Structures are given as structure tokens and as C-alpha cells.
UniProtKB/TrEMBL annotation:
InterPro entries in alphabetical order: Ald_Oxase/Xan_DH_a/b, Ald_Oxase/Xan_DH_a/b_sf, Ald_Oxase/xanthine_DH-like, AldOxase/xan_DH_MoCoBD1, AldOxase/xan_DH_MoCoBD2, AldOxase/xan_DH_Mopterin-bd_sf
Comp. bias (Low complexity): 1-14
Stretches the record annotates as Disordered: 1-39
Domain of life: Bacteria
Name used for this protein in its record: Xanthine dehydrogenase family protein molybdopterin-binding subunit
Pfam families: Ald_Xan_dh_C (PF01315), MoCoBD_1 (PF02738), MoCoBD_2 (PF20256)
Amino acid sequence: MSNDAATATSVTAVDGIQPERRSETPAHGLGASLPPADARAKTEGTFPYAADLWAEGLLWAAVLRSPHAHARIVSIDTTAASEMPGVRAVVTHQDLPGDPAHGRSVADRPVFASDLVRHHGEAIAAVAADHPDTARLAAAAIAVEYEVLEPVTDPEQAFAAEPLHPDGNLIRHIPLSFGDPEAVGEVIVEGLYRIGRQDPAPIGAEAGLAVPRPDGGVEIYTASTDPHTDRDRAAACFGLEQERVKVVVTGVPGATGDREDGSFQIPLGLLALRTGCPVKLAATREESFLGHAHRHPTLLRYRHHADAEGRLVKVEAQILLDAGAYADASSESLAAAVSFACGPYVVPHAFIEGWAVRTNNPPSGHVRGEGALQVCAAYEGQMDKLAAKLGLDPAELRLRNVLATGDLLPTGQTVTCPAPVAELLSAVRDFPFPALPKDTPQDDWLLPGGPEGAGEPSAVRRGVGYAVGMVHMLGAEGADEVSTATVKVHDGVATVICAAVETGQGFSTLARQIVQEILGIEEVHVASVDTDQPPAGAATHGRHTWVSGGAVERAAKMVRTQLLQPLAHKFGMSTELLQIADGKITSYDGVLSTTVTEAMDGKELWATAQCRPHPTEPLDDTGQGDAFVGLAFCAIRAIVDVDIELGSVRVVEMAVAQDVGRILNPAQLATRIEAGVTQGVGAALTENLRTPRGLVRHPDLTHYALPTSLDTPDIRIVKLVEERDVVAPFGAKAVSAVPVVTSPAAIASAVRAATGRPVNRLPIRPQAAVAAPSA
């Protein structure tokens, strides 16, 4: 879009969400649009990216990766590589002193392949040399003899195929059963849906620096999003106590999934231990595509039953997740997919069967909205089919079925959090439509396909589509979600120490706002993160806003009590009668008025606190259980223009309504929603990592098409519902994942409306957007 259009979108998003508050917005604290804590460092070029790190005596690492998707390793000869001038170490599976494998939930992924290669790009060996080119040449000189095997790339074939792993091909099976299996609706629609492989496409280079320690341990500097888990995995593979391995988090360029994969970190640390020198690795974009996990490609079969009025009676579904070669986060992703397979709709009877299986495709894992995005595209496709069969408006059909607080999920869990789904859907439905394009637009790029691919304006059809989506917050199925934070105050400056990694979700800014709100101190610093601090968990599912933010809040309140108790005792009143605002402490009656600095009197105050939400439980053998701490919902109306002759699609506008619990930072919240919608546009139209016969085709950003500013539609945040979740700190909900989940389904719905085609595959291919003969 043009600069003017981009500005207009930004203004609409930020100002439009709460126009009545603009004059009341505080300068700092909760509710303020405080700028990101790292904004200045990033704009000035001083942000500490891992790729920029340096150390005295630095060596460079390179990893040899398999060119095959499935092969037996006959032999590995490192002689030529070891004898090259400048090479300091070559390591394979034989050089691992500890566990040979690692993994998120199951340690099933070898650090280096030993007998079998299970996916294209699997690590075989690693080299350390005094120059990066030498390291790459040495890695290429390692002679590996392969016996190439037939890859299993179709997840449906994995059930009958020979085991690809000692643990077998089936990672998890969930047969959810809810209600009466004999229930039948008056109207039945069926559908088969396929979701492609989306790459998280981390913005900056995946890189790291490992430095050996005098005690025989190692420090790893990398953009980890879960440093304590990464430390524990690495220590197990190194055969070291956890205390002798330290992970220091460098600046994270941004993350929408796992940031730095173990296939980078562990070889790096092993080389540093072997050579006794600092070792650095900066992965190429190709290595990133081959090494890290992607969104699960998914096959979904659905049958919806409804009565003559369009009310859902029963949903039957089969969901098959392609986990790739290793388990990673597939079990958790499957649980989300099965639990949310009916969407935010009331369904009296549901029978969902889900599987996650191993194949010889690249590994799948955590990418924002995992599991929920795939099923949202399918169940919303089913709702469009029902609306068409019943002759109902698609939005009206959805409104007749939406979930509300107090309703049951198909897992048997009661929705206790705010669930204003009807309010959200009504808001986007009633939002004014944008103007229709002219017959001959002045700007060719406004046509689907842009100036080089534009067809005739007369072939352009406009479509309107709807979708509602849901995600869970925090970990699920009994995950112990706990975070620890320390708040220190000295000389009028506060410091927050918490191992919650800032990945772009805004935690560092939020931590500053919390302390400003509670202690009235404007200057707040957030310490850098390493594993010497108590763990805070992974930066996923909005957990740092909830759990780590809650820990910071509790610690700050404890410091507040320490600060106010002497004053309260001196004046014979309770601390509840004192308030802190704008750096001043005042009593309810005006008798006491002093500054925070004066009250501190040179002392240093500090407190450490934990936050742990209420426990959850695993799904049982029938898919029943209270598996989730909280839920977030979103409704989106998509408007698209489709060239029905060429199949080109342009997303014109996305109207978004979302329940956010409480707005903590208006500008940051709007940015997160816009970013989520944009990522969803990529999943809907352009992003699909192609892997014929298990081989990653074109692993680069030239052929893997991320949406650019010209692909980004006008994003109108038409309503944010601030109904606080009473069990969440501040009452706030996660905001990033649910627009990612919902927007691809809304775009597919709009393309269906424009073309009359079923659109049952994401991303949408041009042939699927060519109008049906009757359209």
C-alpha cells in the first residue's frame, strides 16, 4: 500500500480502538502507549543480535546436512576435513559425551544422525575452523556414504509404513467423544481440507556463540525463546550438570515460533567444549529452512449436521497432522486441533479423531496458533457450506451457533472466561464496507496480481467472508506454568529481573509499565536474560503477559508494601490508605505528601515473587478434561477482489474484532493484531514450503513468498472487548495468535463468496480462485 494508506491504517488501528480515551491516556503505567523498550537500540543499530557477537580467538562453525529425506548411513569419513589447514575440530554422533538425542516433549531427535537420516537437512557432522569459508569447505569435504531409502512423505501412508523411528510412526492419537453418536441433523455437509507447511521465517539470521568456561562447562549466547529448556537439553547432550551450562539470551529479532533450534545450539556448544575456544555459527537462510520446525501440514475430513434452522447438531471430524521426522510439539498441537475442532460454536454432539504421525518430511513444531489455525480453516469452510445449503447469510448462520460464557467445549470443559463471540461477530458484520473499486482504477497495482499480472477490470469480483477463531492461553494438559520475577528499587530507579524473553510480544515494555503503575517510578530497566535467573518458561501462548507479568506485579506490590509500611506506621494508618502516583506518595486525607525518592531515603528495596495459574489436566482417553487455563476469541470479516479468469486474489480489507480482557498498551496491542493478521494473509495466499519427495524445494526467501507491504490489506480494528478475565493478572488476554488463526479462514470464505468455488486448501492456489462455471 502507499505511504498514505499505511499511515491511515495505523491511525485507524490505534485511534479507532478507544477514541473516548485519548485525552485520558496516561503518560506511563498500564494503559499508556509506552514505546518498545528496545526501539532506540534497533533504530540506532546497537541492538545485540547474536550474529554480531565476537570473542577473542573466535572459531567458526559449519554443519553438514543430509541431501536426502530418507537414507541409511553406511559410513562417515572425516579424514579429509580434519586434515584441512585451519580446521580445529570435526564432530559426529560418536563425539557426544551425553544423550545422543534431544526434543521438546520426547527426546527423539538425534543431535547428529548416526544410522539413519530421517529428513532432508538433518545434521550429520559439524566443523570448527578459523574462518567461516574454511568451516564450510571442511563440512563439504566430509565423505558420507548413503544407502538412499524410499521416503514416507504422505502422512496417510505412515500408518502402514515400516517404522521410521524406534518409537514408531504414531506420535499421538486422540479419539474425542462428546454426546450421542446416534444424533443426526436434518442437513448434512461434508468437506476435505488441506493446510500447507508454513515456515516461521524468523526475521534475523539464526546464530549463536559458544564460549568454554574454566570449570569445563560452556556458555551459549543465542536468541533463545526458552533458555532454561534449551540449557537442560544441551546439558544432557554434553553429559554435564545443568549448573555448568549457561544460556545467555541475546537480542531476539522477532519470533512467531521456536527461535533457535537445538540443531544449531548443541553442535555449537560441543565444538566449543572440544576446541577450548569460542565458536560462532551464523546459519544461512537455507540452513534455517532445513533445520527449524514448521507449521504442521494437516489433512482434515469434516461432516457437519444441523437442523433446518441452521443450528448445529453434531460435528464429526478426522484430523491428521504431519509431524515430520520427529515429535517436537506435535502432541500439544494435536490436543489444540482436536479440542477446537468445532470452533467457538455450541455443538451438542462431537466426535473428533486426531492423529499426529512421523514422516520423512521436515520437522513440524510450534508456530503461532498451531493446531487451531488448521481446524479454523476447516470448520469455517463447513459453516459456509451449511449457509449455502440452507440459503442463510453466512454471518447469520454463525450468530445462531456462537459460544458464550458458561457453554461447554467438546472436551467437557466449561468456558468460564469471557467469551463475547456474538458481540465480536456482530461488530465486524455491521462495520461499513469499503468503497467498490472503479471499473478502470488509476493504480494498476490495485488489481489482483499487481501491474504485471493484472487482467481485465471487468473480470474482478468482490467477495465478503467471515470467520471466528479461538486459541488457548498458556500451556495445556497439566503443564506447570510458573514464572519468577524480582523487582529492585534504588536511587529512584527500578530494575526488573525475569527470565521472560522479549520476542517482540512486548514483555519488556509491559514490565516497565507494571512497575510504573504500582511504584510510581518512571525510570524502570529490565535486565537481560540468562539461565542464572529462575526460569520463566517459553515465550508462547501469551504466557509472559499472564504468568511473568503476574510475577512482576506481585514482586512490585511487595516492594510497595516495604516502601509504605514505615510511613503508614509513622502516621498511624494502613498502607491501603496511601497511594503512589507520578512519583509521589499521598494519603487519602492529604496529611501525608512526599516523594518516592524521599521515602526511600537511600535504601535499596527488593522482592521476589512467583505467579502460577490454576492447574489443568490432560485429556483422557475420550478427549475429555479441563485442559486449558484460558481462551481468547476473534472475529474477522475479509473483503477480497478476485480476478476470476486468472485466479489472482487481492485482500482489500480485514475488519477485526477481538476480546482482549484489558488494554495494557494501546499502540502495542494494535501492532500485535496487525502483525497477526498479516501472518495469516501469508498462510492464506502465499506461504507454502514445498517438499516434493521430502526434499525442501527452494529454501530461500526469493521463492518462499512472505507477504510484503503491498500484500497487506487495510486492517480495521473495529472493536476490542475489555471484559476482564478474573483469573488473569490485570484481566488481560493474549492478542497475537488468535488473529493469525482466524484471518486465513476469513480470506478463504471471501474467495468462496467471490468465485463460487469450495476453496478447501491453504494457501489458496490460483486454480482454486477461478470462478465456477455458474458464478
